[in-house]
Amino acid sequence: MDLAEIFDELDPDEVVILFRLLYKDQAAEVFSYLSTGRRKAIVSAIHVKLLEHILDDLYFDDKIDFLEEMPANFVKSLIASAPPEERKMINQFLNYPDNSAGSLMTIEYVDLKKHMTVRQALDRIKAVGVDKETIYTCYVLDDTRRLEGIISLRRLVLSDEDQRIGDIMTNDVVLAEATDDQEEVAEMFRKYDLIAIPVVDAETRLIGIITIDDIMDVIDRENTEDFQKMAAMEPSDEAYLEAGVFHLARRRIVWLLVLMVSATFTGGIISRYTALLGAVVALASFIPMLMDSGGNAGSQSSTLIIRGIALGEIGLSDWPKVLWKELRVSLLVGLGLGAVNALRMVVIGQSDPALILTVGITLVCTIVVAKMVGGALPIAAKALGMDPAIMAGPLITTIVDAIALIIFFSIASALVL
Amino acid sequence: MDLAEIFDELDPDEVVILFRLLYKDQAAEVFSYLSTGRRKAIVSAIHVKLLEHILDDLYFDDKIDFLEEMPANFVKSLIASAPPEERKMINQFLNYPDNSAGSLMTIEYVDLKKHMTVRQALDRIKAVGVDKETIYTCYVLDDTRRLEGIISLRRLVLSDEDQRIGDIMTNDVVLAEATDDQEEVAEMFRKYDLIAIPVVDAETRLIGIITIDDIMDVIDRENTEDFQKMAAMEPSDEAYLEAGVFHLARRRIVWLLVLMVSATFTGGIISRYTALLGAVVALASFIPMLMDSGGNAGSQSSTLIIRGIALGEIGLSDWPKVLWKELRVSLLVGLGLGAVNALRMVVIGQSDPALILTVGITLVCTIVVAKMVGGALPIAAKALGMDPAIMAGPLITTIVDAIALIIFFSIASALVL
Fold first, then answer.
1. Is residue A221, in this structure, part of any structural domain at all?
2. Torsion over CA: B315, B321, B324, B330 (sign)
3. Considering only CB atoms, which chain B residues are within 8 Å of A264?
């Protein structure tokens, strides 16, 4: 990993030269940690023999990840030279959708039989374990490769050597299917404190395992995706410094366009009140403060709810609790802001009581509405099968802006004029 | 875990009744997964003998977590009845600051000696392993408990039984100190794909280990903290549904107040241009769109940079790359938005070329400034030793609002009047 980190800071040319200097066995390990850009540079420059050696040394899941990054022609020619059995397997694994359990799993696990003794099991682990991604959880299969149970190396080492695997294995196994979403799989790891999960097909035949190091990456990626969605961007896996300018611009402009066009509506509200604005010009100067406070208050609520849903702490049925809590919090926060704002207005010399009252009432109403909207929309999104992360700051702000202005001008019409 | 999940959905009274029905050994495990509220209810209702049994069964890190939640008096009386050696240890562990490596570690590890053979090591693991939190990594200590190396159970099981631990152990160990920040420790796990890390004191004496299940929680908590800071809240560990209304309000109001008072400045800009606004009332209707687009564009950039810094993908020295990239992206995005906006204005009947040009130029300038500010501030915060997550949407929006309005009115003064 430390070598890979150094490599990622070098120019592609230098990487290729240095890579050739590595021991053959080091090469595969460093390769598995490198960024896509560096890998491509190396693949195009090294001898095909060395490449084959590296690919042989990679764990199957890392090999699949690598093949997914490479151009289709390259992958085809590589697969063509593989033995038929492996070719079939590679094609099968390449076909699992991104973000599915299937795309995370590897095939290097230890399989045992129920009738084995602990001693036989340990001998088998010793014989085959060196090439396995993990030996800490072993999988007990019947003759048709159906998963009958699992047994940890811990249990094996701590058990009497003559006990039968079938008697000491765990039958009640947490497992995933290849089509499960990777987020669900991460949730299983989190909930049950596991270090590996078996993946089975519809007949509970074991087709692979997922290990926790891959799940750590998934959790990082899923969080990154949520951060990006919540900031009104289309999510992308690509590292910022490696991403192209056009790619970045495209991911950002769509939501900005949507939100900009939505703001037409907000502008329309102001247009309707130009007479009022002309009569009391001071009103205009409060628009930014009201819009921003509403938007920020709404973002706070939606962020807490989105995160609560993501961590499984808040469910659909909690919506009455959420709204009741947001109502009380927003009244407290709104009254606090209103009081400080009144003070602020007096300090900057705007001591017209009607104006102070108008701004104060608007502020309280806006905060309450913002927090109710911010609390409700993520849960509504979840109920509709959408990603709650979309209902975050930018969208909430646009909605709350319009509501804040309507409240402001309505109250101002009544009180100030 | 499944039982604990059911318990967390019940009323505290029901929890106490059901908890008494558990087998003694189940009780400790379920207890370790329960929420703080449920634990308190149980502790106040069960017999002290059962409580002592549960505490005996908990791993040391879970016990410390539990004691940290409980009232000081209760902890005192519990510790008083513990043997002196354990009392000293508990007090030491309770003193590690929150968020430090010390607060995460446990003392249930397997220690080995260099001169042992693999067979002797496996025998020792068999003898002491059942009470250890992990046996998958074992720690090789000298007579003064200094850490000389580590060896994985994998290596032990796959090695010849007569080999000496000193010959096959790993000397080059990734380790943490008790005062290290938990975020740094999580980064080590992520980077080196580890399942446990040893924690040492200043003389490299082993004082505890941290296992990956606790790190998964840390990663969740750190991400939650970032989400909260980025939405202008003071971070808190407490689950939303368990948090009190006053607690929630206090965490939210501070930043809202700061941002509201900052908006005085933005309002001041509008006040200075009331003459212009009075003359061309249509200008006011573009304020929300310009403010929102700027804020959203800035949030996008700052979110990507904050996340990149958190994942270690973007470092301080990358700032020229970031600004250059943001400049190009923002020009693309700004021109795109400007073009669509011109179309939008024509469609809604505002076809005054001077007005279209004013809004268009302002839009491009605002997006460019917003994205440069959004890209620069998180890196600046990092350079100053502050948390980049503070430089997110809400703060960026407030800054960009002011800049957007100054640009807008300056251009409008020149072009429209």
1. no
2. negative
3. 289, 344, 348
